[in-house]
Protein backbone atom coordinates (compact mmCIF):
# COMPACT_ATOMS: atom_id res chain seq x y z
CA UNK A 1 0.00 0.00 0.00
CA UNK A 2 1.29 3.40 -0.91
CA UNK A 3 2.35 5.40 2.14
CA UNK A 4 -0.29 7.83 3.23
CA UNK A 5 1.18 11.32 2.83
CA UNK A 6 2.85 11.70 6.19
CA UNK A 7 -0.26 10.99 8.14
CA UNK A 8 -2.21 13.86 6.53
CA UNK A 9 -0.54 15.05 9.15
CA UNK A 10 -0.65 14.06 12.72
CA UNK A 11 1.01 17.38 13.41
CA UNK A 12 -1.92 19.27 11.98
CA UNK A 13 -4.40 17.27 14.02
CA UNK A 14 -2.43 17.91 17.18
CA UNK A 15 -3.41 21.53 16.70
CA UNK A 16 -7.06 20.56 16.61
CA UNK A 17 -7.33 19.00 20.06
CA UNK A 18 -5.19 20.05 23.04
CA UNK A 19 -5.40 19.63 26.81
CA UNK A 20 -6.94 22.24 29.04
CA UNK A 21 -7.25 22.03 32.82
CA UNK A 22 -9.77 19.22 32.48
CA UNK A 23 -7.93 16.10 31.23
CA UNK A 24 -11.12 14.99 29.48
CA UNK A 25 -11.67 18.33 27.72
CA UNK A 26 -11.33 18.75 23.97
CA UNK A 27 -10.63 22.43 23.39
CA UNK A 28 -12.01 24.11 20.31
CA UNK A 29 -9.28 25.96 18.43
CA UNK A 30 -10.16 28.88 16.18
CA UNK A 31 -7.59 28.18 13.50
CA UNK A 32 -8.33 28.87 9.82
CA UNK A 33 -5.95 26.06 8.82
CA UNK A 34 -7.61 23.39 10.98
CA UNK A 35 -11.29 22.55 11.41
CA UNK A 36 -13.06 23.15 14.71
CA UNK A 37 -14.98 20.36 16.42
CA UNK A 38 -18.21 22.09 15.46
CA UNK A 39 -17.35 22.28 11.79
CA UNK A 40 -16.59 18.55 11.50
CA UNK A 41 -19.73 17.47 13.34
CA UNK A 42 -22.10 19.50 11.18
CA UNK A 43 -22.29 18.21 7.61
CA UNK A 44 -18.57 17.56 7.35
CA UNK A 45 -16.96 17.04 3.97
CA UNK A 46 -15.26 13.76 3.11
CA UNK A 47 -11.88 15.42 3.48
CA UNK A 48 -12.77 16.66 6.96
CA UNK A 49 -13.89 13.19 7.99
CA UNK A 50 -10.66 11.79 6.56
CA UNK A 51 -8.72 14.36 8.56
CA UNK A 52 -10.34 13.33 11.85
CA UNK A 53 -9.98 9.62 11.02
CA UNK A 54 -6.26 9.94 10.37
CA UNK A 55 -5.88 11.98 13.52
CA UNK A 56 -7.63 9.19 15.43
CA UNK A 57 -4.96 6.77 14.24
CA UNK A 58 -2.36 9.20 15.51
CA UNK A 59 -4.15 9.47 18.86
CA UNK A 60 -4.42 5.68 18.90
CA UNK A 61 -0.62 5.33 19.25
CA UNK A 62 -0.22 8.05 21.88
CA UNK A 63 0.14 5.55 24.73
CA UNK A 64 3.09 3.65 23.23
CA UNK A 65 6.07 5.49 24.71
CA UNK A 66 4.80 5.87 28.27
CA UNK A 67 3.43 2.34 28.61
CA UNK A 68 6.41 0.69 26.94
CA UNK A 69 8.77 2.41 29.35
CA UNK A 70 6.70 2.40 32.54
CA UNK A 71 4.43 -0.66 32.55
CA UNK A 72 7.21 -2.89 31.28
CA UNK A 73 9.37 -1.56 34.11
CA UNK A 74 6.64 -2.42 36.63
CA UNK A 75 6.61 -6.00 35.31
CA UNK A 76 10.43 -6.11 35.25
CA UNK A 77 10.55 -6.90 31.55
CA UNK A 78 12.91 -3.96 31.14
CA UNK A 79 14.73 -1.21 32.94
CA UNK A 80 14.35 2.24 31.44
CA UNK A 81 17.79 3.54 32.32
CA UNK A 82 17.87 7.33 32.21
CA UNK A 83 21.12 9.10 32.95
CA UNK A 84 19.47 12.53 33.02
CA UNK A 85 16.81 11.88 35.65
CA UNK A 86 17.25 9.23 38.37
CA UNK A 87 13.51 9.12 39.10
CA UNK A 88 13.00 6.82 36.12
CA UNK A 89 14.92 4.29 38.18
CA UNK A 90 14.10 5.18 41.78
CA UNK A 91 10.40 6.01 41.43
CA UNK A 92 9.34 3.58 38.72
CA UNK A 93 11.14 0.75 40.50
CA UNK A 94 9.70 1.72 43.87
CA UNK A 95 13.10 2.05 45.49
CA UNK A 96 13.59 3.37 49.05
CA UNK A 97 9.89 3.24 49.84
CA UNK A 98 8.77 5.37 46.91
CA UNK A 99 5.11 4.76 46.12
CA UNK A 100 2.80 6.19 43.48
CA UNK A 101 0.62 9.11 44.50
CA UNK A 102 -1.64 11.43 42.51
CA UNK A 103 1.27 13.42 41.11
CA UNK A 104 3.41 10.33 40.56
CA UNK A 105 6.54 11.03 38.58
CA UNK A 106 6.64 10.15 34.91
CA UNK A 107 2.95 10.47 34.12
CA UNK A 108 2.56 14.22 34.27
CA UNK A 109 -0.28 16.12 35.82
CA UNK A 110 -2.92 14.20 33.88
CA UNK A 111 -1.50 10.70 33.77
CA UNK A 112 0.05 10.98 30.32
CA UNK A 113 -0.03 7.97 28.05
CA UNK A 114 -1.42 5.74 30.78
CA UNK A 115 -4.56 7.78 31.43
CA UNK A 116 -5.29 11.09 29.73
CA UNK A 117 -4.00 10.21 26.26
CA UNK A 118 -6.28 7.16 25.89
CA UNK A 119 -9.25 9.30 26.88
CA UNK A 120 -8.29 11.82 24.22
CA UNK A 121 -8.38 9.00 21.67
CA UNK A 122 -11.79 7.92 22.99
CA UNK A 123 -13.12 11.47 22.60
CA UNK A 124 -11.62 11.93 19.17
CA UNK A 125 -13.34 8.71 18.12
CA UNK A 126 -16.59 10.18 19.42
CA UNK A 127 -16.04 13.27 17.26
CA UNK A 128 -15.53 10.96 14.29
CA UNK A 129 -18.74 9.04 15.06
CA UNK A 130 -20.71 12.29 15.31
CA UNK A 131 -19.15 13.64 12.13
CA UNK A 132 -20.16 10.50 10.23
CA UNK A 133 -23.67 10.59 11.70
CA UNK A 134 -24.33 14.23 10.79
CA UNK A 135 -23.24 14.55 7.19
CA UNK A 136 -24.72 13.93 3.77
CA UNK A 137 -21.33 13.48 2.12
CA UNK A 138 -21.11 9.73 2.79
CA UNK A 139 -23.44 6.79 2.28
CA UNK A 140 -25.14 4.76 5.02
CA UNK A 141 -22.69 1.89 4.57
CA UNK A 142 -19.74 4.26 4.71
CA UNK A 143 -21.16 5.71 7.92
CA UNK A 144 -21.38 2.23 9.42
CA UNK A 145 -17.79 1.46 8.44
CA UNK A 146 -16.44 4.65 10.02
CA UNK A 147 -18.54 4.17 13.15
CA UNK A 148 -17.35 0.59 13.51
CA UNK A 149 -13.70 1.60 13.19
CA UNK A 150 -14.10 4.40 15.75
CA UNK A 151 -15.78 2.14 18.30
CA UNK A 152 -13.09 -0.49 17.81
CA UNK A 153 -10.45 2.10 18.75
CA UNK A 154 -12.54 3.21 21.73
CA UNK A 155 -12.72 -0.36 23.01
CA UNK A 156 -8.96 -0.73 22.73
CA UNK A 157 -8.22 2.61 24.37
CA UNK A 158 -10.59 2.18 27.33
CA UNK A 159 -8.59 -0.87 28.40
CA UNK A 160 -5.53 1.29 29.05
CA UNK A 161 -6.75 3.50 31.93
CA UNK A 162 -8.78 0.55 33.25
CA UNK A 163 -5.60 -1.49 33.66
CA UNK A 164 -3.64 1.49 34.96
CA UNK A 165 -5.87 2.39 37.93
CA UNK A 166 -7.49 -1.08 38.16
CA UNK A 167 -9.45 -1.36 41.45
CA UNK A 168 -9.68 2.44 41.72
CA UNK A 169 -12.11 2.45 38.80
CA UNK A 170 -12.44 4.52 35.65
CA UNK A 171 -15.04 6.70 34.01
CA UNK A 172 -16.80 5.18 31.04
CA UNK A 173 -19.33 7.98 30.54
CA UNK A 174 -17.29 10.90 29.21
CA UNK A 175 -19.80 12.28 26.72
CA UNK A 176 -20.08 15.48 28.79
CA UNK A 177 -16.45 16.43 29.33
CA UNK A 178 -17.39 19.13 31.83
CA UNK A 179 -19.36 16.66 33.94
CA UNK A 180 -18.14 13.11 33.30
CA UNK A 181 -19.81 10.13 34.91
CA UNK A 182 -18.78 8.47 38.12
CA UNK A 183 -16.02 5.89 38.42
CA UNK A 184 -17.00 2.29 37.77
CA UNK A 185 -15.15 -0.83 38.95
CA UNK A 186 -12.75 -2.73 36.70
CA UNK A 187 -15.19 -5.50 35.80
CA UNK A 188 -17.83 -3.00 34.72
CA UNK A 189 -15.24 -1.09 32.69
CA UNK A 190 -14.26 -4.28 30.89
CA UNK A 191 -17.91 -5.09 30.23
CA UNK A 192 -18.14 -1.65 28.64
CA UNK A 193 -15.14 -2.48 26.46
CA UNK A 194 -16.87 -5.66 25.35
CA UNK A 195 -20.06 -3.73 24.53
CA UNK A 196 -18.14 -1.22 22.42
CA UNK A 197 -16.41 -3.99 20.48
CA UNK A 198 -19.70 -5.84 19.91
CA UNK A 199 -21.22 -2.59 18.63
CA UNK A 200 -18.18 -2.09 16.42
CA UNK A 201 -18.66 -5.51 14.90
CA UNK A 202 -22.33 -4.83 14.27
CA UNK A 203 -21.55 -1.57 12.51
CA UNK A 204 -18.79 -3.15 10.42
CA UNK A 205 -21.10 -6.02 9.48
CA UNK A 206 -23.68 -3.51 8.25
CA UNK A 207 -20.95 -1.83 6.19
CA UNK A 208 -20.73 -4.77 3.77
CA UNK A 209 -17.69 -6.67 2.56
CA UNK A 210 -15.77 -4.18 0.47
CA UNK A 211 -12.74 -1.99 1.07
CA UNK A 212 -12.85 0.46 3.96
CA UNK A 213 -14.26 3.68 2.43
CA UNK A 214 -11.60 6.05 3.77
CA UNK A 215 -7.80 5.92 3.63
CA UNK A 216 -6.15 4.16 6.54
CA UNK A 217 -2.46 4.53 7.34
CA UNK A 218 0.07 1.83 6.36
CA UNK A 219 -0.39 0.23 9.77
CA UNK A 220 -3.65 -1.23 8.44
CA UNK A 221 -2.25 -2.12 5.02
CA UNK A 222 -3.21 -5.79 5.41
CA UNK A 223 -6.48 -4.98 7.15
CA UNK A 224 -8.08 -2.27 5.01
CA UNK A 225 -11.19 -4.22 4.04
CA UNK A 226 -14.33 -4.44 6.14
CA UNK A 227 -13.95 -8.22 6.78
CA UNK A 228 -10.31 -7.74 7.82
CA UNK A 229 -11.23 -4.92 10.22
CA UNK A 230 -13.84 -7.20 11.77
CA UNK A 231 -11.04 -9.69 12.34
CA UNK A 232 -8.94 -7.03 14.08
CA UNK A 233 -11.92 -6.04 16.20
CA UNK A 234 -12.43 -9.66 17.26
CA UNK A 235 -8.75 -9.99 18.11
CA UNK A 236 -9.09 -7.02 20.48
CA UNK A 237 -12.28 -8.59 21.87
CA UNK A 238 -10.37 -11.81 22.56
CA UNK A 239 -7.87 -9.84 24.68
CA UNK A 240 -10.70 -8.08 26.50
CA UNK A 241 -12.55 -11.34 27.17
CA UNK A 242 -9.35 -12.77 28.61
CA UNK A 243 -9.32 -9.96 31.18
CA UNK A 244 -13.01 -10.68 31.81
CA UNK A 245 -12.21 -14.40 32.31
CA UNK A 246 -14.85 -15.26 29.73
CA UNK A 247 -12.90 -18.18 28.33
CA UNK A 248 -15.51 -19.40 25.87
CA UNK A 249 -15.91 -15.82 24.74
CA UNK A 250 -12.17 -15.72 24.08
CA UNK A 251 -12.39 -18.77 21.81
CA UNK A 252 -15.45 -17.42 19.99
CA UNK A 253 -13.72 -14.09 19.33
CA UNK A 254 -10.54 -15.84 18.17
CA UNK A 255 -12.47 -17.89 15.64
CA UNK A 256 -13.63 -14.64 14.06
CA UNK A 257 -10.22 -12.94 14.30
CA UNK A 258 -7.15 -13.06 12.06
CA UNK A 259 -5.62 -15.84 14.17
CA UNK A 260 -3.77 -18.28 11.91
CA UNK A 261 -2.32 -21.37 13.59
CA UNK A 262 -0.02 -21.95 10.64
CA UNK A 263 0.66 -18.34 9.72
CA UNK A 264 3.12 -15.58 10.44
CA UNK A 265 3.25 -15.01 14.20
CA UNK A 266 4.06 -11.32 13.70
CA UNK A 267 0.97 -10.65 11.59
CA UNK A 268 -1.19 -7.85 12.96
CA UNK A 269 -2.21 -4.19 12.63
CA UNK A 270 0.45 -1.69 13.59
CA UNK A 271 1.19 1.87 14.61
CA UNK A 272 3.20 3.36 11.72
CA UNK A 273 6.04 5.87 12.10
CA UNK A 274 7.08 7.77 8.99
CA UNK A 275 9.54 10.37 10.27
CA UNK A 276 9.12 14.17 9.94
CA UNK A 277 6.62 15.72 9.87
CA UNK A 278 5.34 12.54 11.52
CA UNK A 279 7.07 10.84 14.47
CA UNK A 280 9.90 8.34 14.66
CA UNK A 281 9.50 4.94 16.31
CA UNK A 282 9.90 5.92 20.00
CA UNK A 283 11.33 2.51 20.98
CA UNK A 284 14.18 2.51 18.47
CA UNK A 285 17.73 2.87 19.76
CA UNK A 286 20.85 2.55 17.63
CA UNK A 287 22.60 -0.70 18.49
CA UNK A 288 25.63 -0.26 20.70
CA UNK A 289 25.36 3.52 20.64
CA UNK A 290 27.21 5.40 23.38
CA UNK A 291 24.15 6.48 25.36
CA UNK A 292 23.07 6.70 28.97
CA UNK A 293 19.33 6.72 28.33
CA UNK A 294 17.92 3.50 26.86
CA UNK A 295 15.53 0.58 27.35
CA UNK A 296 17.49 -2.51 28.40
CA UNK A 297 16.45 -6.12 28.97
CA UNK A 298 15.81 -6.87 32.63
CA UNK A 299 18.41 -9.25 34.09
CA UNK A 300 15.73 -11.71 35.26
CA UNK A 301 14.48 -12.12 31.70
CA UNK A 302 17.99 -13.02 30.57
CA UNK A 303 18.51 -15.36 33.52
CA UNK A 304 15.33 -17.37 32.90
CA UNK A 305 15.74 -18.05 29.18
CA UNK A 306 15.62 -21.54 27.69
CA UNK A 307 18.83 -22.35 25.78
CA UNK A 308 18.40 -21.95 22.04
CA UNK A 309 15.23 -19.85 22.23
CA UNK A 310 15.00 -18.04 18.90
CA UNK A 311 13.09 -15.17 20.52
CA UNK A 312 16.09 -14.40 22.71
CA UNK A 313 18.43 -14.30 19.74
CA UNK A 314 16.07 -12.14 17.70
CA UNK A 315 14.87 -9.69 20.36
CA UNK A 316 17.90 -9.10 22.57
CA UNK A 317 21.17 -7.54 21.44
CA UNK A 318 24.22 -7.89 23.69
CA UNK A 319 26.07 -4.61 23.90
CA UNK A 320 29.82 -4.27 23.66
CA UNK A 321 29.67 -1.70 26.46
CA UNK A 322 26.86 -2.18 29.00
CA UNK A 323 24.88 0.86 30.14
CA UNK A 324 25.28 1.48 33.86
CA UNK A 325 23.20 3.74 36.08
CA UNK A 326 23.91 3.95 39.81
CA UNK A 327 21.12 4.34 42.36
CA UNK A 328 21.40 4.85 46.10
CA UNK A 329 19.02 1.99 46.89
CA UNK A 330 20.51 -0.74 44.70
CA UNK A 331 23.90 0.45 43.56
CA UNK A 332 24.65 -0.10 39.89
CA UNK A 333 21.88 -1.13 37.49
CA UNK A 334 23.74 -2.67 34.55
CA UNK A 335 22.05 -3.10 31.19
CA UNK A 336 23.94 -5.70 29.18
CA UNK A 337 21.36 -6.20 26.41
CA UNK A 338 19.15 -3.80 24.47
CA UNK A 339 16.07 -4.15 22.30
CA UNK A 340 16.82 -5.65 18.88
CA UNK A 341 13.30 -5.69 17.42
CA UNK A 342 13.41 -2.47 15.39
CA UNK A 343 15.55 -2.33 12.26
CA UNK A 344 15.07 1.41 11.68
CA UNK A 345 13.57 4.43 13.39
CA UNK A 346 10.52 4.16 11.12
CA UNK A 347 9.74 0.48 11.76
CA UNK A 348 6.03 0.13 12.67
CA UNK A 349 4.96 -1.25 16.06
CA UNK A 350 2.33 -3.98 15.92
CA UNK A 351 -0.33 -3.47 18.60
CA UNK A 352 -1.89 -6.94 18.55
CA UNK A 353 -0.46 -9.92 16.70
CA UNK A 354 -1.09 -13.51 15.74
CA UNK A 355 1.37 -14.82 18.34
CA UNK A 356 -0.66 -13.27 21.15
CA UNK A 357 -3.87 -14.69 19.73
CA UNK A 358 -2.48 -18.24 19.72
CA UNK A 359 -1.35 -17.81 23.31
CA UNK A 360 -4.83 -16.53 24.22
CA UNK A 361 -6.23 -19.68 22.65
CA UNK A 362 -3.91 -21.80 24.77
CA UNK A 363 -4.90 -19.89 27.91
CA UNK A 364 -8.62 -20.20 27.24
CA UNK A 365 -8.36 -23.95 26.62
CA UNK A 366 -6.28 -24.42 29.77
CA UNK A 367 -8.84 -22.58 31.89
CA UNK A 368 -11.60 -24.69 30.38
CA UNK A 369 -9.57 -27.86 31.16
CA UNK A 370 -9.29 -28.66 27.46
CA UNK A 371 -5.80 -30.00 27.90
CA UNK A 372 -4.90 -31.33 24.47
CA UNK A 373 -6.05 -28.16 22.70
CA UNK A 374 -4.04 -26.04 25.14
CA UNK A 375 -0.90 -28.11 24.59
CA UNK A 376 -1.33 -27.97 20.81
CA UNK A 377 -1.42 -24.17 20.91
CA UNK A 378 1.55 -24.02 23.28
CA UNK A 379 3.54 -26.21 20.93
CA UNK A 380 2.95 -23.85 18.00
CA UNK A 381 4.70 -21.12 19.99
CA UNK A 382 7.45 -23.37 21.34
CA UNK A 383 8.30 -24.85 17.96
CA UNK A 384 8.40 -21.40 16.36
CA UNK A 385 10.93 -20.50 19.08
CA UNK A 386 12.86 -23.71 18.30
CA UNK A 387 12.63 -25.06 21.86
CA UNK A 388 10.60 -28.19 21.07
CA UNK A 389 7.27 -29.52 22.26
CA UNK A 390 5.98 -29.07 25.78
CA UNK A 391 6.72 -32.16 27.92
CA UNK A 392 5.69 -30.95 31.37
CA UNK A 393 2.69 -31.73 33.52
CA UNK A 394 -0.77 -31.15 32.08
CA UNK A 395 -2.59 -29.99 35.18
CA UNK A 396 -4.34 -26.66 34.80
CA UNK A 397 -1.84 -24.96 37.10
CA UNK A 398 1.15 -26.36 35.18
CA UNK A 399 -0.29 -25.30 31.83
CA UNK A 400 -0.98 -21.78 33.09
CA UNK A 401 2.62 -21.64 34.36
CA UNK A 402 3.85 -22.61 30.91
CA UNK A 403 1.57 -20.20 29.07
CA UNK A 404 2.62 -17.26 31.25
CA UNK A 405 6.26 -18.18 30.68
CA UNK A 406 5.76 -18.25 26.92
CA UNK A 407 3.88 -14.94 27.04
CA UNK A 408 6.85 -13.46 28.90
CA UNK A 409 9.12 -14.04 25.89
CA UNK A 410 6.69 -13.94 22.97
CA UNK A 411 5.18 -10.64 24.14
CA UNK A 412 8.29 -9.21 25.77
CA UNK A 413 8.22 -5.42 26.22
CA UNK A 414 5.31 -4.85 23.86
CA UNK A 415 3.50 -1.54 24.40
CA UNK A 416 0.96 -3.06 26.74
CA UNK A 417 2.81 -4.21 29.87
CA UNK A 418 1.62 -7.79 29.42
CA UNK A 419 3.65 -9.31 32.22
CA UNK A 420 2.56 -6.70 34.79
CA UNK A 421 -1.09 -7.30 33.87
CA UNK A 422 -0.65 -11.09 33.68
CA UNK A 423 0.93 -11.27 37.15
CA UNK A 424 -1.91 -9.22 38.61
CA UNK A 425 -4.74 -11.15 37.01
CA UNK A 426 -3.32 -14.46 38.26
CA UNK A 427 -2.41 -13.03 41.69
CA UNK A 428 1.29 -13.65 41.08
CA UNK A 429 2.75 -10.22 41.58
CA UNK A 430 5.07 -11.63 44.21
CA UNK A 431 6.74 -13.61 41.40
CA UNK A 432 8.01 -10.42 39.73
CA UNK A 433 11.65 -10.19 40.91
CA UNK A 434 12.92 -7.14 42.75
CA UNK A 435 16.27 -8.50 43.93
CA UNK A 436 18.12 -6.90 40.99
CA UNK A 437 16.98 -3.38 41.87
CA UNK A 438 15.80 -3.55 45.51
CA UNK A 439 12.50 -2.04 44.48
CA UNK A 440 8.79 -2.72 44.92
CA UNK A 441 5.92 -3.91 42.73
CA UNK A 442 2.91 -1.67 42.26
CA UNK A 443 -0.54 -3.21 41.88
CA UNK A 444 -2.27 -0.10 40.51
CA UNK A 445 -2.22 3.69 40.44
CA UNK A 446 -4.47 6.43 41.81
CA UNK A 447 -6.40 8.83 39.65
CA UNK A 448 -4.14 11.66 38.49
CA UNK A 449 -4.18 14.85 40.50
CA UNK A 450 -5.47 16.93 37.58
CA UNK A 451 -8.65 14.87 37.42
CA UNK A 452 -9.18 15.02 41.17
CA UNK A 453 -8.62 18.78 41.11
CA UNK A 454 -11.11 19.16 38.28
CA UNK A 455 -13.76 17.25 40.23
CA UNK A 456 -13.16 19.45 43.23
CA UNK A 457 -13.40 22.58 41.08
CA UNK A 458 -16.69 21.47 39.54
CA UNK A 459 -18.20 20.53 42.92
CA UNK A 460 -17.24 23.84 44.58
Highlighted features:
two-stranded antiparallel ribbon, Serine Threonine Protein Phosphatase 5, Tetratricopeptide repeat, mainly alpha, two-stranded antiparallel sheet, disordered N terminus, 460 residues
Structural description of this entry:
It contains 17 helices and 8 strands. The model is unreliable at 1-21 and 27-33 (pLDDT under 50). Helix 7 runs antiparallel to helix 8 and helix 9 packs across helix 13 (354-367). Strands 1-5 form a two-stranded antiparallel sheet. Strands 2-3 form a two-stranded antiparallel sheet. Strands 4-8 form a two-stranded antiparallel sheet. It has a domain at 5-94 and 101-210 and 269-276 and 415-452: Serine Threonine Protein Phosphatase 5, Tetratricopeptide repeat (Alpha Horseshoe), CATH 1.25.40. The protein is globular and about 60 Å long. It has helices at residues 10-14, 37-40, 46-60, 64-74, 87-90, 116-133, 140-165, 186-206, 226-243, 247-255, 299-303, 310-315, 354-367, 371-384, 396-410, 418-425, 449-459; strands at residues 78-82, 170-171, 183-184, 270-271, 293-297, 316-327, 331-339, 349-350. It is mostly helical and 460 residues long.
